[in-house]
User: Which sequence fits this backbone?
């Protein structure tokens, strides 16, 4: 008999979920915000795949932090809070930061990690200085600039989402147009150059698309955590597939999933900035992928290793039984497991291996603890020997 | 200058030096981004310790934070070891997740106490002088002075005592291991120090400035010297300069102190990047200019030496021929030949160049190199 | 006389103000198998990279079949060092080999059935056809090398550059490469190989260039591959080789 409270509990959960879907479909704000997060997830997941493969995982971190002074300066210069203008400022700043970083690495002995950390902290510090400076201006219409720190999805308006969609579609379209070229320079830059492709131009284009993807997410996820949206979807996607195309598609999908679910969760409770929740959703997807992905996942690998070990163990006992049978060619007699244990390098595993062989129909128990190979077992052993020879 | 202003500058300078010491080794060990990761994740340690002790002044906060810093390092290494992601990606996966948990906990449950996310990023150096430490009822200065001073002392002692080991483990971990210096222990000790420094400075200057102070001054110093000991001293001095000038910049603009100081560390780096005596961009350009002519002279002697024996000498060594073969403009070729003649490396007869004794020497010198 | 496959004149290359190659001449007749040998840091890889236009020379010029490389790109195939790429990249063997057709395809066009057929054909030539759908991270070093060779083969070039193809490969792969080199020669192609193993030079190649920042010698193996030249290129370091070499030549 069901306890009525459980039924009620299930019922109310069901109500919650259907309410959520209802809201998603008909609640204007929620739909707008979820759509925006989905777009951001798709674009950052897709372009992040290239960034991760190009060993630029942390470049996203530097670019997103570096975008802050761009946003504030764009506001200071235009006194406009128009997202397009702020995004343009972020784009330019992110771009300059990347350029500066690459030049420092190229012309000095400073390595990429230091250059990244330098640009990240200095640009961000500069941005905070400008932000606080702006906040103290008398006509402080700046209210809301600080949402770019941790993201506030709720502030997304429909036209913001339309802008995001247009830019996102453009970015993805460019990615698809130059797919072959991007793949080539990502895998083997010098070879691409030897074929006559202008690798510098392609490199700049791809990096620009990455900056665009980052800037697209700043309002929702914030500069502090946007880098996670570049790295994590790609890292998760990589575990499931060995094909670049699938990786990019999956990356986009994971990004969108995290974006939407994070936005919904953060929207359903008070006082939780969106960025951290989206990042946590994304981290959960990464963790799940690393553990359970087919082929590469840790659990999958553990399981496969276990099976390999069992298979090897059985094979060894099979070989030993065969050796014994050869030593006593004319008798169909059984051998005790003690003998097999003595022959084996792994005595504890012998009885398990024997029952496994019996299950597979390769060995039989002629009497109590008297083991011998079946005909199938002898054939199998013969085959193995041939292969080894 | 009011005493509060002086105190702020002193605290900031202490933080700058405290950060520069481990920062130098992070930069040299190519682990600069770990400081970014750690300075973010220690927050979770602070938050958890705060929930346990219900106090912001408990020393447990420091312990929790340092522990979380080390956990971050361990997690990154574990993730690395699975070989499912590369190291840079591992850092990029671990710290945003941990930091997110901390931010959510703060905004959800601690919104009304003295912990908020802005303070985390920016620090509250302005208020540092108001938080006084009292001993037997006597005011002995701001509390932050003692915490940051303690951290500085700790870092200083560590670097002085283990200077040799740190140096060896940084430049040649394999040799260090062979000599029994346990580079792993040094590594974790350094990371613990980075975490402690991050937390200790955190309260005063915020996470951004910790990263800026740990990376920018050592990076600038790296362009100024080849010696580890000097690099440590220069980093400390650059840090102090950035702290003091940053303070006055913030005073001027009425803007965030931490942000202004970070900006000044960047400016210091920029100065070093442009004007460093040997490695700066300007020095590089000047050297290239000088070398262009030196290079051309050597090339000329070698070219002639290479082709003197051959029957094609007649054509190859004509002055007009140089433009075509060495890709020199006629003007540059004339300049080089002129300089070479004045330097007594070549002689010219009927537009045909021959090496002098010293010219031949120069060419051969390059050959034997 | 037919035009040379490669004419390098007075090539000088500097990296960060330090010369890597000084005033080097090199001429490679069409239809030869040529080895570039020299000690580490002699500028061997730099040499072929500069012919391929990947490094800008400080002085000198390079002609491929009598014209600048940019005009002759379609005649050239390239096998970079195996270690220059990330073999954990998510792609299949066939996909990598098809990249060899990207140059001929040009912008925006996607590889199709004919590229696929060409790639499978090339894989067959290097004995890797059954690996076509394999993920590249699952290959051994020798197999990776053969994939790179196949990728250059589908370029269907006249002139091939190979950067240390024998480096760290198994015996099967070494034999496969040697057979391939001979096939290419009998088809009238020219192959330039950066090579490390001095002992196999007379066996595998018919032309050799010795470098050590400047040119030591360049010509037919029989004329040029002498003890004296080797000593000039390697200093005292090849003393142990000279006996071996003397026996062979």
Assistant:
């Amino acid at each position: 008999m069901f306890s009525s409270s459980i039924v009620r509990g299930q019922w109310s959960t069901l109500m919650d979920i259907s309410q959520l879907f209802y809201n998603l479909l008909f609640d204007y704000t929620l739909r707008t915000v979820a759509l925006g997060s989905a777009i951001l997830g798709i674009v950052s997941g897709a372009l992040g795949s290239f960034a991760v493969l190009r060993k630029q995982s942390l470049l996203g971190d530097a670019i997103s932090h570096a975008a802050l002074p761009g946003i504030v300066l764009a506001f200071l210069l235009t006194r406009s809070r128009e997202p397009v203008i702020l995004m343009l400022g972020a784009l330019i700043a992110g771009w300059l930061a990347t350029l500066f970083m690459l030049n420092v690495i190229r012309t000095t002995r400073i390595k990429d990690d230091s250059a990244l950390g330098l640009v990240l902290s200095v640009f961000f510090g500069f941005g905070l200085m400008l932000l606080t400076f702006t906040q103290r201006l008398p006509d402080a219409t700046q209210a809301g600039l600080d949402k770019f720190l941790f993201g506030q999805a709720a502030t997304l308006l429909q036209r913001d989402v339309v802008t995001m969609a247009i830019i996102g579609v453009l970015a993805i379209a460019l990615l698809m147009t130059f797919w072959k070229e991007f793949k080539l320079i990502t895998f083997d830059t010098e070879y691409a150059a030897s074929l006559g492709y202008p690798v510098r131009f392609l490199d700049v284009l791809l990096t620009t698309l990455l900056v665009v993807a980052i800037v697209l997410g700043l309002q929702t996820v914030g500069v502090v955590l946007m880098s996670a949206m570049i790295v994590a979807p790609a890292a998760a996607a990589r575990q499931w597939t060995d094909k670049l195309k699938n990786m990019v598609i999956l990356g986009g999908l994971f990004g969108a999933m995290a974006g939407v679910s994070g936005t919904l969760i953060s929207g359903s409770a008070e006082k939780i900035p969106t960025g951290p929740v989206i990042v946590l959703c994304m981290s959960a997807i990464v963790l799940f992928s690393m553990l359970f992905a087919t082929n590469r996942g840790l659990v999958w690998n553990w399981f496969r290793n276990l099976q390999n070990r069992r298979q090897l163990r059985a094979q060894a006992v099979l070989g030993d039984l065969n050796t014994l049978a050869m030593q006593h060619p004319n008798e169909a007699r059984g051998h005790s497991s003690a003998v097999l244990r003595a022959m084996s390098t792994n005595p504890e595993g012998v009885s398990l291996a024997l029952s496994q062989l019996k299950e597979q129909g390769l060995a039989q128990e002629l009497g109590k603890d008297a083991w011998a190979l079946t005909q199938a077992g002898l054939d199998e052993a013969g085959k193995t020997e041939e292969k080894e020879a | 200058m009011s005493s509060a202003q002086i105190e702020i500058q002193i605290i900031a300078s202490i933080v700058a030096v405290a950060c520069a010491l481990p920062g130098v080794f992070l930069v040299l060990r190519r682990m600069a981004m770990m400081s970014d990761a750690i300075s973010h994740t220690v927050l979770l340690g602070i938050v958890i310790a705060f929930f346990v002790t219900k106090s912001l002044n408990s020393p447990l906060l420091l312990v929790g934070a340092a522990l979380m810093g080390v956990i971050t390092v361990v997690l990154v290494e574990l993730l690395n070891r699975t070989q499912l992601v590369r190291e840079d990606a591992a850092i990029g996966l671990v710290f945003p997740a941990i930091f997110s948990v901390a931010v959510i906990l703060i905004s959800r449950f601690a919104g009304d106490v003295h912990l908020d996310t802005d303070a985390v990023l920016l620090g509250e150096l302005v208020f540092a002088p108001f938080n006084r430490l009292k001993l037997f009822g006597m005011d002995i200065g701001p509390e932050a002075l003692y915490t940051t001073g303690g951290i500085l002392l700790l870092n200083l002692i560590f670097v002085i005592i283990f200077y040799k080991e740190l140096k060896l483990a940084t430049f040649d971990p394999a040799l260090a291991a062979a000599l029994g210096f346990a580079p792993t222990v040094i590594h974790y000790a350094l990371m613990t120090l980075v975490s402690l420094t991050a937390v200790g400075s955190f309260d005063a200057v915020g996470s951004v400035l910790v990263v800026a102070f740990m990376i920018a001054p050592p990076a600038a110093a790296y362009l100024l010297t080849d010696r580890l000991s000097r690099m440590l001293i220069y980093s400390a001095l650059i840090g102090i300069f950035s702290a003091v000038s940053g303070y006055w910049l913030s005073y001027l603009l009425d803007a965030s102190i931490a942000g202004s100081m970070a900006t000044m560390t960047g400016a210091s780096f920029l100065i070093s990047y442009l004007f460093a005596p040997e490695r700066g961009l300007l020095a590089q350009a000047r050297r290239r200019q000088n070398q262009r002519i030196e290079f051309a002279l050597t090339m000329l002697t070698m070219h002639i030496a290479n082709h003197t024996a051959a029957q094609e000498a007649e054509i190859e060594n004509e002055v007009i021929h140089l433009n075509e073969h060495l890709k020199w403009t006629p003007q540059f070729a004339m300049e080089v030949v002129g300089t070479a003649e004045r330097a007594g490396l070549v002689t010219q007869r009927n537009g045909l160049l021959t090496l002098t004794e010293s010219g031949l020497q120069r060419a051969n010198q390059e050959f034997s190199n | 006389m037919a035009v040379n496959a490669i004419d390098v004149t007075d090539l000088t290359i500097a990296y960060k103000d330090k010369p890597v190659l000084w005033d080097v001449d090199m001429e490679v007749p069409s239809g030869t198998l040529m080895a570039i040998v020299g000690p580490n840091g002699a500028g061997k890889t730099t040499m072929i990279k500069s012919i391929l236009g990947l490094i800008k020379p400080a002085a000198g010029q390079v002609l491929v079949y009598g014209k600048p490389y940019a005009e002759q790109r379609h005649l050239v195939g390239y096998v970079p060092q195996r270690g220059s790429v990330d073999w954990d990249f998510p792609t299949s063997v066939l996909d990598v080999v098809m990249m060899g057709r990207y140059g001929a395809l040009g912008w925006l066009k996607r590889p199709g059935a004919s590229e696929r057929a060409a790639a499978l054909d090339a894989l067959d030539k290097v004995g890797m056809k059954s690996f076509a759908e394999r993920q590249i991270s699952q290959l051994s070093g020798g197999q990776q090398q053969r994939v790179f060779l196949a990728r250059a083969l589908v370029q269907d070039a006249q002139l091939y550059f190979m950067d240390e193809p024998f480096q760290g490969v198994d015996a099967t792969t070494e034999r496969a490469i040697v057979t391939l080199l001979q096939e290419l020669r009998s088809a009238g192609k020219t192959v330039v190989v950066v090579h490390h193993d001095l002992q196999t030079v007379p066996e595998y190649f018919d032309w050799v260039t010795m470098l050590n920042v400047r040119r030591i010698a360049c010509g037919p193996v029989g004329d040029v591959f002498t003890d004296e030249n080797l000593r000039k290129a390697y200093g005292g370091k090849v003393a142990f080789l000279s006996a071996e070499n003397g026996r062979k030549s």
